[in-house]
Amino acid sequence: MLLNLIVHQPQAMLQVISHTPYWVWGMLAGLVGLGASQLRDRSASLLRTQLMPLGMAAFSVAGLLSAFGGSASSGVQAVGLWLAAATATTALALWFQPTAPTGTLYSASSRSFYIPGSAMPLALIVGIFLTKYFVGVELAMQPTLARDGTFALQISALYGVFNGLFAARALRMWRLAQQSVVYGASPVGA
């Protein structure tokens, strides 16, 4: 319905946006800031490289439970579908790109990474936010969608894809750190 509204009555989006609570825009600004910080080269600890994917996974699961968790079974099914999609996406992403991006370094002595800037985290963060926003607006306009299995499947899969890509990125970093410990060097991701 939201897409139909955007296409056929774009002026109605102003009303949707004006009814959005202010804290949502604050959250978006914070998330965009977090994602934008990933655009430049930086150093980060292994723990720090793992926290963002975990945080975004928690944000996704919270979105699923708030949208589809009206009954315990619906919430469990939505989270199960999300987990399956995230696992499959992680496996595929690691298969297509098994190593950290070129230029990524790990120093075992300082236990930190040098990570080249990337737009990917920003794109994933904004994608997860927009999915949650879209679902919230859709459910406000059509509350019965909360019990629509097809809608829940689509949203769960979309969240899963975003989180699977985040997980693959975190696992590549973890692998690089493990290789450095095993080989006693700071290999460069290829």
Q: H/E order of the elements?
A: HHHEHHEEHH
Number of helices: 7
Q: Unreliable segments (pLDDT under 50, ≥5 consecutive)?
A: 186-190
Shape: globular
Structural class: mainly alpha
β-strand percent reads: 5-15%
**Average of pLDDT:** 88
Largest sheet: 3 strands, antiparallel
Total number of distinct structural domains: 1
Largest sheet strand order: 1-3-2
Give your account of this protein's structure:
It is a single chain. The protein is 71% helix and 6% strand. It is mainly alpha-helical and 190 residues long. It has one domain (2-183). It has a 3-stranded antiparallel β-sheet with strand order 1-3-2. Strand 2 (105-107) and strand 3 (112-115) form a beta hairpin. Helix 3 (22-36) packs antiparallel against helix 6 and helix 4 runs antiparallel to helix 7 (149-183). The protein is globular. The termini are far apart.
